[in-house]
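Page 37, continued from 36.
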């Protein structure tokens, strides 16, 4: 079994996170999936960004929820990382999916609905509706959230979609939802020893720990091996996996 490697917010060590340059950098490597984050704007557009505020990753300030898409598009989401990426714009979810279609992306798309700090009424329906506008997409899909209500709402709306519960510490309710197939995987914070012990004991289960960047941790994960890992160290992770588990040339994606 090859451990699946998910590129966390694209290749955020090489380009500004959750932007097109970051995703383009990630798919140059034999990854198995892209991980992205989705928020909703004041005018109910879905945008790809991690934080609730734009302050850290743009030249603007304030909450995503309080800005229109046009206001967000006017901001520079690249210069904070490097002048090379000056004038990089935020992407809508639709724009991101359209790009995936153009490059014939056929790996896994892991989308986090960011409802753990801000309530976005209707975001679950909006995400599913946007995804449905790409009926011929080749990618596999997993939706995830820290917010249990969001996960349950997604299950109510779609009985067949793969869902994952993000968590800092794996809770009995997470395990119950997994065993009853309400969710298909649990994605825990790798920093906690309890989580590490649990995913090691049940290494054949569908865990995708985040964010695993230390070489020794990646080596241990690939040697066990675990089902999947979410990482910022794309080049290192793919090299280590290939050296430990053997390479899989089919993992490359066309640009």
């Amino acid at each position: 079994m090859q451990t699946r490697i998910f590129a966390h917010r694209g290749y955020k060590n090489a380009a500004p996170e959750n932007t097109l340059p970051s995703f383009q950098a990630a798919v140059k490597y034999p990854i198995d999936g892209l991980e992205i984050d989705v928020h909703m704007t004041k005018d109910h557009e879905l945008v790809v960004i991690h934080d609730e505020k734009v302050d850290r990753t743009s030249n603007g300030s304030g909450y995503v929820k309080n800005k229109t898409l046009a206001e967000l598009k006017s901001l520079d989401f690249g210069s904070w990382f490097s002048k090379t990426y000056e004038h990089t714009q935020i992407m809508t979810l639709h724009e991101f999916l359209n790009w995936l279609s153009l490059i014939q992306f056929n790996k896994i798309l892991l989308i986090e609905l960011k409802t753990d700090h801000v309530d976005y009424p209707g975001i679950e329906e909006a995400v599913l509706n946007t995804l449905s506008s790409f009926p011929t997409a080749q990618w596999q899909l997993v939706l995830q959230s820290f917010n249990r209500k969001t996960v349950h709402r997604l299950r109510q709306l779609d009985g067949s979609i793969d869902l994952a519960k993000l968590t800092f510490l794996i809770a009995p309710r997470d395990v119950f939802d997994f065993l009853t197939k309400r969710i298909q995987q649990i994605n825990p914070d790798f920093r906690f020893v309890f989580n590490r012990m649990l995913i090691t004991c049940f290494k054949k289960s569908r865990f995708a720990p985040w964010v695993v960047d230390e070489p020794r941790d990646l080596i241990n994960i690939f040697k066990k091996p675990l089902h999947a890992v979410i990482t910022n160290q794309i080049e290192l992770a793919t090299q280590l996996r290939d050296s430990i588990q053997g390479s899989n040339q089919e993992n490359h994606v066309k640009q």
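The two ends are 27 Å apart (CA to CA). Flag for discussion at group meeting. The chain has nine helices and nine strands.
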